[in-house]
């Protein structure tokens, strides 16, 4: 079984930073971050594979950094220069398949989400 638990969300003003964490119950070779705004579907933000190769949504490039600590089975998302449009519930997700998709259905394991609110 797999359990994912996010933390680190909160409220910040535009231009601020947050660091999200996702603790996993066991190792899995592909993990990512998605976000969901009210009345919208989940969109991929960043992902990382077992070799450390990363991919980012255009909205995250240059501002967000995904990383992991294999020893702690923990995924991170450092978010800098936050904008109001970043406001959403952020979810971590994991899959044992190739780390090549932004599709929600590709990821069978999900956390409960952590709220990020950016004020203007």
Task: Write a short abstract of this structure.
This protein has strands at 4-7, 10-13, 18-24, 30-36, 43-49, 54-56, 64-69, 74-79, 88-95, 109-110, 114-119. With 120 residues, the protein is mostly beta strands.
User: What is the CA–CA distance across the termini?
Assistant: 41 Å
Q: Give the topology string: H per helix, E per strand.
A: EEEEEEEEEEE
The class by helix and strand makeup works out as: mainly beta
Shape estimate:
globular
Q: In percent, how helical is the residue content?
A: under 10%
The count of helical stretches stands at 0
Strand content: over 45%
Largest sheet: 7 strands, mixed
Q: Could you name the ranges where pLDDT drops below 50 across 5 or more consecutive residues?
A: none
List how many beta strands DSSP finds. 11
- Overall mean pLDDT stands at 94
Cα Rg:
13 Å
What can you tell me about this protein's structure?
The protein has 120 residues and is mainly beta. Helices cover 0% and strands 50% of the residues. The chain has no helices and 11 strands. Strands 2, 4, 5, 6, 9, 10 and 11 form a 7-stranded mixed beta sheet that branches. The protein has a 4-stranded antiparallel beta sheet with strand order 1-3-8-7, with no helix packed on it. A hairpin with a 6-residue loop joins strand 4 and strand 5. The radius of gyration is 13 Å and the shape is globular. 32% of the residues are buried.
